[in-house]
Specification:
16 helices, globular
Length: about 400
């Protein structure tokens, strides 16, 4: 028993001194007993655990961590550099401008008497407000450079301007005759009008896959109309006329931009939109004079005495000009699929947001029809790309 205790003590002594790098003296071993010889083989020349240079190890660790942190920050910075901040700003203000235009436009129309009030006068003056803003940008210090267009260019821009005027005036009348949400749902069917015109007027073939998407769009619009509490034939017909003008405008604008040299003389996308807006405003004046010119003095009195009309008229004109110019810039910087997604999201935001703010009906059947119609528009926009990948 005494022997086993001596053996255990000897092993522990040797292990501890070796492990912690302590010197192993002969006297310490002899104190454990007389049996030192058999354990001479256990006496190696190096400790089991080597002494550590704390300062070197710590500095190495900190250096490695610092390099990793810098690498991580560089990765995040590199990712941020790849984000197109101006494009995101275009999208944001395009959506915000369109949203507030629809609200201020509807408030001005309601305060002025709705469809029996001054819809054409308001539509024309909205374009006039935008024109004043465009002129200000040309004359302001450090503003936009003025376009170098000639009379021949102006003549070539007249079809686009006429279609822009018709689309805006018909759209304003549609929104004065019914709910904003309903008018926007009908306007979302614009691709159906564009397909017909492209195929049968401009000779541009539309794929069979796109034609098959059109019944989905039309079916969604019909379903949304069934439960529309503010349904009016005037709103439906006017929105369809607006779609027709918008479809013509798209095709005419494409023809205009293919004209050699005109882009260089216009200078910028903003100038293109400004010149088109000025021409559209000039064309709209005879229309509102013909329809509502006899009530001009009544409108002036209403404008002076009713701040809801005056404020929302000016605000809607600025919003209309601003969001349309931003939409033009966004289209120039993105692909067709991105445009389709953006337009789809914009319709949903405007329909739901404006309906909530203005207290318009959001019946489940109407929302279902809205979802089907807008989903069909989105599918129409990307179907050719999906089919081509197969």
């Amino acid at each position: 028993m005494k022997l086993s205790k001596s053996l255990v003590f000897l092993v522990l002594s040797i292990s501890s001194t070796a492990a912690f790098g302590l010197p192993r003296t002969p006297s310490a071993v002899k104190a454990a007993g007389q049996f030192t010889a058999p354990f001479n083989t256990l006496r190696d020349t190096s400790p089991l655990v080597q002494p550590v240079d704390v300062s070197t190890s710590l500095s190495s660790t900190l250096s490695t961590s610092s390099d990793s942190a810098v690498s991580t920050r560089g990765g995040v910075g590199g990712a941020l550099k790849n984000i197109d901040i101006p494009l995101l700003a275009y999208f944001f203000f395009w959506y915000v401008g369109n949203y507030y235009y629809n609200i201020t436009n509807k408030l001005a129309l309601k305060a002025a008497g709705g469809k029996t009030g001054f819809p054409m006068t308001i539509a024309s003056l909205q374009m006039g407000v935008g024109c004043l803003y465009a002129l200000f940008l040309w004359v302001a210090p450090d503003g936009r450079p003025t376009p170098k267009v000639n009379m021949d260019d102006i003549v070539k821009m007249l079809p686009v301007a006429f279609c822009a005027m018709g689309a805006h005036c018909a759209s304003v009348f549609a929104l004065s005759a019914g709910a904003v949400s309903f008018g926007q749902i009908v306007k979302s069917a614009e691709p159906a009008f564009a397909a017909v015109l492209s195929q049968f007027v401009y000779g541009k073939k539309i794929s069979k896959a796109k034609w098959l998407c059109l019944p989905i769009v039309i079916g969604g619009v019909i379903l949304a109309s069934v439960k529309e509490l503010d349904f009016a034939w005037a709103a439906l017909i006017s929105a369809c006329v607006a779609n027709l003008f918008a479809a013509f405008k798209g095709n005419e604008n494409k023809k205009l931009m293919d004209t050699p040299g005109i882009k260089d003389r216009l200078g910028t996308v903003g100038n293109q939109f400004a010149v088109t807006s000025i021409l559209a405003f000039i064309m709209s004046v005879p229309l509102f004079v013909l329809r509502e010119g006899s009530k001009w003095s009544e409108f002036v009195g209403l404008y002076k005495t009713n701040p809801i009309v005056s404020f929302n008229l000016i605000a809607s004109g600025l919003y209309f000009y601003g969001y349309n110019e931003l939409a033009t810039m966004t289209i120039k910087k993105t692909s067709a699929v991105t445009q389709s997604v953006a337009n789809t999201a914009k319709r949903v935001i405007v329909i739901v947001g404006v309906a909530i703010v203005l207290g318009e009906s959001l019946d489940p059947i109407k929302l279902l029809g809205c979802s089907i119609g807008i989903g069909g528009v989105f599918l129409y926009s990307i179907i050719d790309s999906l089919v081509a990948k197969k």
